[in-house]
Amino acid sequence: MKTILLVEDNEDIKKGLDYLFMQQEFLLLSASNLNIAKKYILEKQFDLILLDVTLPDGDGFSFYKEMKDYINVPVIFLTAKDLEDDIVKGLELGASDYIIKPFRNRELILRINNALKFNTAKDKIIHLKDIIIYVDSMKVIRDNKEIPLTSLEFKIFLMLLLNINKVVTREAILDKIWELSSNYVNDNTLTVYIKRIRKKLGTDNIIKTIKGTGYRVDRE
User: Fold this and answer.
1) Neighbour-count burial for 118-143, b at 16+ CB within 10 Å, e otherwise
2) Looking at the structure, do residues 142 and 209 belong to the same domain, yes or no?
């Protein structure tokens, strides 16, 4: 079942999409403002974002620009304006599509399905022993089962994967966590994150501890 994050403050739209997505076998996760949306992006997994352009605590364009490095799924902008400049701006930022409110349900579902198909086709894949990592859709598969890493856990794991056979210092990982979550994280918290990732992966052999320095993932 695909999970869709809806960033929208209109309750009527949320209720309508909740029913529509249930019929389409989509799971809806909703955020009424950008603050909540940012938290979800960093902590949860989903397959697509429907992002309203106008929200109580900011605009969707600026938010997407700020969070783009941490969003690895298709984004469809929802806008009440059909101005060409707004449409072009959203697409230039890298969004998959846009749809003008009020929209027809069939059109929205068609655009969502098209975006999901496109994303699957371009997904970058890393193979590590018996683990398959889908970079863009942030999925980790082992023995044909998805390992439920949180967004932050996945990004820590990916940081190690992108530095395969190299030691990544604890300081570098802590800096990355700070950049992603804007929360202070101490050395002990990092140890807990690594422990959780190892437990979910089902092995302690993938992520090696380099005493006094950091961690390393080896190709073999």
Assistant:
1) ebeeeeeeeebeebebbeebbbbebe
2) yes
CATH code where residue 69 lies: 3.40.50.2300
Whether this prediction's pTM lies above 0.70 is answered by no
Show the tokens assigned to 51.
């992002």
Which residue carries 């072009």 as its tokens? Answer: 88
* Strand segments (E) across the chain: 2-7, 26-31, 48-52, 54-55, 58-59, 75-79, 97-100, 125-128, 131-134, 139-142, 145-146, 167-169, 207-210, 214-217
49/29 Cα distance (integer angstroms): 9
- Structural domain range at position 166: 125-217
Contact 116, 24 (CB under 8 A): no
Residue 154 to residue 147: CA distance in whole angstroms: 10
Of 109, 111, 113, 144, nearest to 130 by C-alpha is 144
My answer on whether 110 and 6 are in the same domain is yes
203-214 confidence digits (pLDDT tens): 888 999 999 899
Q: What is the pLDDT of residues 42-55, one digit of tens each?
A: 778 889 999 999 99
Cα 24 from Cα 132, distance rounded (Å): 28
**Parallel, antiparallel, or unpaired for β 48-52 and 26-31?**
unpaired
